Amino acid sequence: MNRFRTDLHIHTVLSPCGDLEMSPVNIIxxxxxxxxxxxxxxxHNTTRQCGVMCELGNENGIFVLAGAEVTTREEIHCLVFFExxxxxxxxxxxxxxxxxxxxNKPSYFGHxxxxxxxxxxxxxxxxxxxxxxxxxxxxxxxxxxxxxxxFIPAHIDRPRNSILSQLGFMPDNLNPDALEISGRxxxxxxxxxxxxxxxxRFVRNSDAxxxxxxxxxxxxxxxxxxxxxxxxxALRGEQNRKVTTP
Amino acid sequence: MNVSQLVETLxxxxxxxxRGLNKPIAGGYTSDLLSDVMGNAEExxxxxxxxxxxxVMAIAQLKDLAAVVLVKGLKPxxxxxxxxxxxxIPLLGTNEPAFDITGKLYKLIANDSGLTISL
Lengths: 246, 119
What we know:
The complex is a heterodimer.
Chain A: E1 2-10, H1 24-33, E2 38-41, H2 50-60, E3 63-71, E4 77-82, H3 85-98, H4 106-109, E5 113-115, E6 121-124, H5 137-146, E7 150-153, H6 163-167, E8 179-181, H7 187-193, E9 202-204, E10 219-223, H8 228-236, E11 242-244
Parallel strand pairs in A: 1-2, 2-3, 8-9
Antiparallel strand pairs in A: 1-10, 3-4, 4-7, 5-6, 10-11
Helix pairs in contact in A: 1-2
Chain B: H1 3-10, E1 13-16, E2 27-30, H2 34-40, E3 45-49, H3 55-62, E4 67-70, H4 78-87, E5 91-93, H5 98-112
Parallel strand pairs in B: 2-3, 3-4, 4-5
Antiparallel strand pairs in B: 1-5
Helix pairs in contact in B: 3-4
């Protein structure tokens, strides 16, 4: 198996809370500096920056996993990723159908900009992207499953917008590919507090909102080669693929 | 006051768990963060929330709550209903928002225990 340095939780300039410096070019440049092999693009409730990110990643030898950070009805954040462009498009339609319209106020929440590879602004998104969609975590997981995607409840160790804060404990009918642990804790310390989660797999990411945060926390993926399926297998701990959280 | 009297007085919908309608009510707790309810609700409380997830009933059972009231006309998830039946903890509903139904519950409990509400 080969080891790949991975950060699956990165916001772009499209997330209202994403810094204006989080342009596709800057993200790729910083990921290279940090020696990342694989990055995940996870804007709040939208996948619309993923196309250009994948193109730039291809050209620069960085594997880009296309996805989003979904806010469920319970206000739980979940990372989701898709392999095929048509699945990503289908999920984008699902998000647009289920996101309630609340006008963004850029002076308060930040701008929501779709940009191209040259940092030209293509569109400013009106609906505030960080609000909860009208779908439960189980419904979101079901949709991701139907589209053959990857489903990872985000920052499980955080006191807000996590499964543990919103639902009290891990529901027994969820079957995530892995759980994300944030930079605020180490996996072993967290598991000492939550031994009931011992059987889950974990991945640690940066949740970067500014370029300097990219890769500050990362995981090692042990894969035969880099592909969506290999990454999914590693998250599920299948066939000797695995993820470690240094 | 028991749950049955509460249902009648506040015109609540009974979704499930009617086996527990004679449970006495000790107090109330209003919150949508299940981790908060786990930590702070007390035995015999009526829990007012907009969360419809199955974990709601598990926590109601864990904390030995009298009943759960879903606000704003929200309907419980299918497996939440099943769990409420299994636990015998009434799962109730109202069209009112949490603020209004909480105010009414507070007043009822205060009257019931002979307290004078001072504002």
